[in-house]
Amino acid sequence: MSLSVVILAAGKGTRMRSSLPKVLHSIADKPMVAHVIDSARQLGASNIYVVYGFGGEVLQQRITGDDLTFVEQVEQLGTGHAVDQASPFLTDDEDVLVLYGDVPLTKVSTLESLLAAKPSDGMALLTVHLANPMGYGRIVREEIAGQQQVVGIIEQKDASPEQLTINEANTGILLANGGDLKRWLSNLSSDNAQGEYYLTDIIASAHGEGKTINTAHPETEIEVEGANNRVQLATLERAYQARIAEELMIAGASLRDPARIDVRGKLTTGTEVSIDVNCIFEGEVTIADNVLVGANCIIKNSTIGENVEIKPNSIIEDAVIEADCSVGPFARIRPGSVMKQNSHIGNFVEMKNTTLGEGTKAGHLSYLGNAEIGRKVNVGAGTITCNYDGVNKSTTTIGDNAFIGSNSSLVAPVTIGDSATIGAGSVITKEVAQSDLALGRAKQRNLSGWQRPTKKS
Ligand code: UD1
Ligand code: CA
Known about the structure:
Elements: E1 3-9, E2 26-27, E3 30-31, H1 32-42, E4 47-52, H2 56-62, E5 68-72, H3 79-84, E6 95-100, H4 108-117, E7 122-129, E8 138-144, E9 147-154, E10 168-177, H5 178-186, H6 202-208, E11 212-216, H7 230-250, E12 254-255, E13 261-269, E14 274-275, E15 279-287, E16 292-293, E17 298-300, E18 303-304, E19 309-310, E20 315-317, E21 319-321, E22 326-327, E23 332-333, E24 337-339, E25 344-352, E26 355-356, E27 361-369, E28 371-373, E29 378-379, E30 384-386, E31 396-398, E32 403-404, E33 409-411, E34 414-416, E35 421-422, E36 427-428, E37 437-438
Parallel strand pairs: 1-4, 1-6, 4-5, 7-11, 12-14, 13-15, 14-16, 15-17, 15-18, 16-19, 17-20, 18-21, 19-22, 20-23, 21-24, 22-25, 23-25, 24-26, 25-27, 26-28, 27-29, 28-31, 29-32, 30-33, 31-34, 32-35, 33-36, 35-37
Antiparallel strand pairs: 2-3, 6-10, 7-10, 8-9
Bound molecules: uridine-diphosphate-N-acetylglucosamine and calcium ion.
């Protein structure tokens, strides 16, 4: 059976107090509606219809895909009216799943259980038992053939005192046959307490036609919670992060405090990986076996090899760090950097667009930009590659086994040969041949009997 998904996203989101449409507010740096679209894709949806009301332009800029169709709901006349905007696109023989752009944490496994619950001649509803169902539509059941079957949904504002005691609530998520859905939607009326076309009224229509309405349930309430303001958004963010932290631990990573890690993208960890508190992972990050990540590190779109130690307060972005390396504390590895096996970057070293050869060390206080650095090089403290002349960037090339004395300025473009030595404090502007010693600094003069200035009275 082919599946289409209709995502309701027409709410303005006034309570966000934002110019951005509500569904573009993010969980883990990804818009809420993008989480919902991801879930729809994981279910194998062939078409996804996003019903929008406000900010259609920015929505279609930020959210893209061949499988997406944006459908405008010009006036927000209710959830039934919203789904009906997609009716012209729906076919009679497919299943249609209704999701919500501001309910981002529904698990794919929960939605799969909803798909499994739908009888061939009936529909399926995702419902949840709540201690306090205030505000939710209530699931009305009647005994049919010895079973408590769903016969309708009554909205809070339309419910009798007796119906208000029902604690099985409507999540809004439902699944129906496309032909059935279109027929039921075309018969909706707005004759109710809110004067809206309620999607929930299709349940009574289904029951009236003798269809069976089965239910499925989420594992936890947070899966069906929406975000109307930034407080609720922050609650969902924490729940999402807790879920990711749990997945990482189940996969074998040790988190010193699962409440103090943030993953804003996809983090993949090997075995014996330990992550200390307050680390942030962004984009795609892959960490191999036996890696230690110290406190307060930020790692974005990078690959970390086996047995690497990243010491506290290091920032790594768009970089490859091969096996056995050590980084930090307080290191900054910027885009385009590669640390070959067993190399070392120490405190207050910044690297950008630079390759550090195998076994090479830059332990302290350096800037290495646009550099090709060979194997087993020692880069002394305070070494600067002067890669920028104010207009162009140039390359510094350093051969294997070179020794760069402390506080050297290497003015690019410049090449330093294999096994060359640079005296401390040098400003190097010319090529240094293999094995040569280069000294590019003023000669020391000592003046004996030097009198210091005295204070003028
Ligand atoms: C709806 C359900 C209620 C359920 C609750 C769960 C109906 C009539 N009621 O109530 O049974 O318990 O959700 O949260 O369906 N939307 C549009 N266009 C519209 C109206 C709504 O896109 O014209 C979108 C909203 O942006 C929102 C979602 O649909 O994302 C739900 O709408 P909302 O008005 O919040 O419905 P509730 O009154 O909460
Ligand atoms: Ca609501």
